Fold:
Amino acid sequence: MLSMSAQLEIYEQMRLLSTRMVEAARAGDWDRLIDLEHAVSGLRQTLMQERDDAPADRQASARKRELIQHILHDDAEVRRHTEPWMEQVRRFLSGHLRQRQLDRAYGSER
Structure:
C-alpha cells in the first residue's frame, strides 16, 4: 500500500509530465508526446496496482484533488491539439483503404 505522501509524489510527477505533454502537443511533437504518455501510463499503473486505503488528511486530499484537476485540464488541452491531427490521419487512411478496395475490385492501372 502506498502512503499518501507517496501517492502525492506520483500525482505530482504525473502533473509535470502532463504539462510537458501539452507542450509537445502544441509543438506537434508526436513522438515526444507518445513517450510522455507512456511515462504517465506507467505511473497510473503504479497507482492502480496499489490499494488506496491510506488515511488522508484534509490538506492531502485537497492537494490530490488539485493535482488530478490539473492533469485532467492538461489532458483536455492535449486532446484539443491531437484530435484534429487524428481526424486527418483517419481520413488519409480511409482514402487509402478505399483506393485499395477499388484497385482490387477493378484492377490497378498503375
